[in-house]
Amino acid sequence: MPQRMLIDGKWTAGRGTTFPTYDPATGKVIDEVPEATDADVDEAVEAAARAFESAEWAGMLPAARARLMLRLADLVERNAEELSRLETTDQGQPLYVSGGSVAGLAEHLRYYAGWATKITGVTASPSVPDVDFRTHREPLGVCALIVPWNFPLPIAAWKFAPALAAGNTVVIKPAEQTPLSTLRLGELFVEAGFPAGVVNIVTGGPATGRALVRHPKVAKVSFTGSTEVGREIAAEAGRSLKRVSLELGGKAPSIITADADVDAIIAGNLMGGVFNSGQMCAALSRYYVDRRRADEFTEKLAGAASGMRLGPGLDPATNLGPLVSEEQLERVDGYVRLGKEEGAELVTGGARADGDLANGYFYQPTVFGGVAQDMRIAREEIFGPVLSVLPYDDPDELVAKANDTEYGLTAYIWSRDISEANRLARRIRAGSVYINTFPILDPAAPWGGMKASGMGREMGWEAIEAYTEVKSIWTKL
């Protein structure tokens, strides 16, 4: 696979140094990848700007763009096993996770290939005599797509698929922890026949991202990552009046009503909390349980968590892979220590895995009981397999407790009373609310957050809107 960046249709080592990417299961270096300089970023953006204006891309019929995207989807499926193993090796997630990610990548390409020929404006009847009025939806230009390390391929697809369908050009920056699968995908873009400069990939850390955000020829920034960095990007984009989409952190409540069937919902609550080792912004991380059922729920959740098999993602028997890095492991362990100091009851887990897994970044699935609303483990995003059970006494306080957070990405409700569940759902401030199910995503369903969980939406028609702008055209009759 390439160890270089894709700029203007060519593979380049860039002008800077290199940095290592690690196998989270072993702690060993997999490869060295270029650290893009400001000059490399400028070259990539300039290439994308030229391609955006080129007759080859700007003049390409929507049906031809769709065929390119469908061809790429076929190539992704043809190379699915390789892409999955590469994603697992570099990120750590089990093969059942990375396999689903690659399948999701192909589905997003096909979904937005369909939209390429269906992007329309509107006609209207203004109160002005003898004029014809219509709108035209047009691409924005160069889009900087900054992708996180938890799901590198599918989140990249959430961004580049609608951007390309609408006729934009893109510069993709994968996270420095997980660049390899995106670089391999770059080869497939070239093989599919995308014109030079339409898709560019630069690798590097925060400095590379800042250079992209600040570049004057970038028209749109789409970022998925931490709320802290999202705020910086929003401020920078505001100063330069760039379009921006942000999908940021989360601290999702999972509400278990008194009538819920605890045995039936344990599996969904556990997997929703520790999927990808808890490294997802939609993870169920604070469980509100009727005090009369709290001990039962905590015991059964902890029992199921302690029975999960930790191991390398490439092992088909693995339930839970490693965290992405030593830094992330130390962050998670720090929150576990903090939870104990705050007086929460550690029921299971709470330590780095030892023995054969000691060299990797493995952390035991952890359950805290008796957690209070004001504890930091109940309020701050941990991004690891750490689950907190918060008993409640008064159901009338549930909505206030669920909304008592700066985040608003997802929320979960588990109840046999569907009417009551839907009443709760309407009052919770979150971009997506799931009733009696763990997180589900689909290319047709808008995805994004409220409050500090971001702005804008990915997926669905809303993503096409996010990568286009409306022009009004008036004609005197």
Question: How would you describe this structure to a colleague?
Answer:
The radius of gyration is 23 Å and the shape is globular. It has helices at 38-53, 55-58, 62-78, 80-91, 95-115, 152-165, 180-192, 206-214, 227-240, 262-274, 291-306, 326-342, 376-379, 398-403, 418-427, 460-466, and strands spanning 5-7, 10-12, 18-22, 29-34, 123-124, 131-139, 142-146, 169-173, 199-201, 218-224, 243-247, 252-256, 284-290, 345-348, 366-369, 386-392, 410-414, 432-435, 454-455, 468-476. It is of the alpha/beta class and 477 residues long. Strand 12, helix 10 and strand 13 form a beta-alpha-beta unit. The chain has 16 helices and 20 strands. It starts with a strand and ends with a strand.
Assign the CATH topology of the largest domain. Aldehyde Dehydrogenase, Chain A, domain 1
Q: What proportion strand?
A: 15-25%
**How far apart are the termini?**
59 Å
Mean of the pLDDT scores?
A: 97
Counting H and I runs of at least 4 residues, what is the number of helices? 16
Taken from the alpha-carbon principal axes, the silhouette is globular
Helicity level, as a percent range? Answer: 40-55%
- Count of structural domains: 2
Query: How are strands sequenced across the largest beta sheet?
Result: 14-15-16-13-12-17-18
Number of strands: 20
Structural class: alpha/beta
Q: Under the CATH scheme, which class of the largest domain? A: Alpha Beta
Radius of gyration using CA atoms only: 23 Å
**Low-confidence blocks of residues:** none
Multimerization state: single chain
CATH superfamily of the largest domain: Aldehyde Dehydrogenase, Chain A, domain 1
